[in-house]
Amino acid sequence: MILENQNKELGSYIKQQGYYPLILKGNEKEFYKGEQRDLLLYLLKEELKNNHNQKQQQIIHTILEQNPPVGNRNRYLTDIFNLLVNEGLSKKSIDTLSRYGIILNHTGKHPTTTFFNDSRYTMTFSSTPSDLNVGRQYYRQIRKLFF
Question: Which of 49, 87, 99, 111 fits as disulfide partner to 93, beta carbons 3.0 to 4.6 Å?
């Protein structure tokens, strides 16, 4: 009975708004438009790969189907990948990365980078990379730590 009443109240509230939002609640600042929504939808999509029961899979699938991502996360990751693979850490690519909030600092033995100058999100690069796949490696690190 209690759950039925709460469900009715929630249904009325959502009906008044005119849409069914994907629930996002937190106090983390977004670094770019749609960051949290895109990340949450990405994580739900990844979660579908796990072996859940049919009901859980249907709920996740329905949420993904009815909540399109903003798309900035994938667009930014594609641009960053192409940039690092094609140019490595050239002056041009460093300037372009800064437009995506990835700020490179040369203040020690090894260059570090922060995401939107937030010290919680810091990464160290090799100062003399010798691998031909260094652009891909940098990209994987950036994607894993910042996106």
Answer: 87
Q: Which amino acid is at 88?
A: G
Neighbouring-strand partners of residue 104: 113
Residues of the chain below pLDDT 70: 1, 3-4, 6-7, 10-11, 13-25, 127-130
> What does the pLDDT read at residue 1?
66
Of 39, 66, 20, nearest in space to 47 by CA = 39
Please give the structure tokens belonging to residue 132. Answer: 């031909």
Beta bridge partners of 124: 112
Q: In what order do the strands lie in the sheet with 118-124?
A: 102-105, 112-115, 118-124
Residues 6+ apart with CB under 8 A from 54: none
Query: Is-above-0.85 flag for pTM?
Result: no
| Secondary structure in 3-state letters for the chain | CHHHHHHHHHHHHHHHHCCCCCCCCCCCCCCCCCHHHHHHHHHHHHHCCCCCCHHHHHHHHHHHHHCCCCCHHHHHHHHHHHHHHHHCCCHHHHHHHHHCCEEEECCCCCCEEEECCEEEEEEECCCCCCCCCHHHHHHHHHHHHHC
